[in-house]
């Protein structure tokens, strides 16, 4: 048995194992390190993408605010000239595919102008975004809602 334990074949296998074990250890360590770096890169890319999306969203909101501010200053809107205002908003809706509709309301929430034809009276006085706009007398962003005019 002792001869078998120290035979040439056994010694060669032990020598090969001694040479391979550090290589396997090195492969394992470098694999774990590569995985860690890949996770850090993925996290950095996700953060960069989130910042880019936030910047894009900020630009969209700023553009909407500028457009709505300009629309609020139009003579047809200020005079509550429904016929002229409806035609203008309908044309603007066709030109601006980013928006579903444009409406103008009186301070009591009653819609007097819409790019889509009104099927009856529409009032937004009970909407949280409308109440916040009245309180702040400024541009506000509301939550997702199903439109009362467009559905």
Structure summarized in a few sentences:
With 151 residues, the protein is mainly α. The protein has five helices and two strands, in the order ααααββα.
Number of helices: 5
CATH class of the largest domain: Alpha Beta
User: What is the assembly state of the chains in this entry?
Assistant: single chain
| CATH homologous superfamily caption of the largest domain | PAS domain
Distance between the termini: 89 Å
**Radius of gyration, Cα only, in angstroms?**
34 Å
CATH architecture of the largest domain: 2-Layer Sandwich
Helix content: 55-70%
The gross shape turns out to be: rod-shaped
Widest beta sheet: strand line-up: 1-2
Helix-strand pattern: HHHHEEH
Classify the fold: give the CATH topology of the largest domain.
Beta-Lactamase
Largest sheet: 2 strands, antiparallel
What would you call the structural class?
A: mainly alpha
Can you lay out the helices and strands and say which pair or pack?
Layout: H1 2-5, H2 8-72, H3 75-78, H4 82-95, E1 103-105, E2 111-114, H5 128-136
Antiparallel strand pairs: 1-2
Report on the architecture of this protein:
The protein is mainly alpha-helical and 151 residues long. The protein folds into two domains: 1-53; 74-151, 2-Layer Sandwich (Beta-Lactamase), CATH 3.30.450.20. The chain is 64% helix and 5% strand. The chain is built from five helices and two strands. The chain has helices at 2-5, 8-72, 75-78, 82-95, 128-136, and strands at residues 103-105, 111-114. A two-stranded antiparallel sheet has the order 1-2. Strand 1 and strand 2 (111-114) form a beta hairpin. The protein starts with a helix and ends in a 15-residue tail after the last helix.
